[in-house]
């Protein structure tokens, strides 16, 4: 199928015949070049002149007219020249060698010849509370459980910050001398400790060597060192210092809980001491241990005297009725009655006397002091019970470190991960080289 004259034929519509090579003569006529005369083979035998002239006329090629299909293809383009390497291509190769290959080779040599083996010690722990909800709390709902979980999470957050703090670095360094531990690889300037005596340098190295992962109240640590025992010692020191911090938090929380109860107990104790001191001074001043008991004794004496008086009065009446008026028994009985009455009057005067030692006043003062002492004793008993309850509650809610992974002792060196580091270096340098190449070509195309 041939396309109309003057219109180019799409490449998709070309047939196999269209793609066949064109003879040299046709191509020359199409381009406008003069075709060369074909080279004739040497004659086998001489012929006559008229015959040669006739053969020459018959051998002259005819000028072939181009077909519509040949005209539709257009003129034949010359063959493109062979591509050659240019200066920018050599620059790309050189930059690839310098920016990618050379750093990877240098890094590989350093990792496998100079980098010292590092051992990892792992430790994992969480913060637990001893508080257990009672029956009333279980019936009341889940509020106590949510509160306990929130307190534990808060303590774990505090521990997470504490492990990253300079305070812990200083404490562990005081126990183990971290500078010496992390400087045991003198031929490895990349991974060994390169800082000075400043605590900031040691804290920066701490962030490189100690890795922490925190998830849902659990803390996982990985400690690196050039000796497995050193790595385990650092992990154990971190665990111990974390326990000390939790104990300090327990002491602060316990002190906050017991402060009010202790102050109330102290006030009750002071009140009771003062009441007892006043009672002792009262007894020493009046030389009485228990005035109430003395009153009861005196009341018993008066009652006994009254009974005796009644008996003597009865006896006197009988004597006067049966004996002579001059009977001496009558006078003796009258004397007894008089003595009994005088004694009773003396006993009564002890209660109503205006003197300083009046028993009624003494008993009144004693009763006031006794009431004050009893109130102070009851207040002290209640305050002591409240203090014991607060102390038990504080102890019940105490927190502690619960390690679920003890500090491990490494058997083989796991770090540095040389293959992974090489791949990372290669990818990083390759990305830099590609970005630089794209920037170079974009700037070149804009010119």
TrEMBL record:
Recorded GO MF terms: protein tyrosine kinase activity
Transmembrane recorded as keyword: yes
Sequence intervals crossing the membrane: 90-112, 421-443
Organism superkingdom: Bacteria
Keyword Transmembrane: yes
Coiled coil: 258-285
CC annotations in GO: plasma membrane
InterPro entries, sorted: Bact_polysacc_biosynth/exp
Region (Disordered): 1-75
Composition skew (Low complexity), residue ranges: 35-51
Entry keyword set: Coiled coil, Membrane, Transmembrane, Transmembrane helix
Protein name: Capsular polysaccharide transport system permease protein
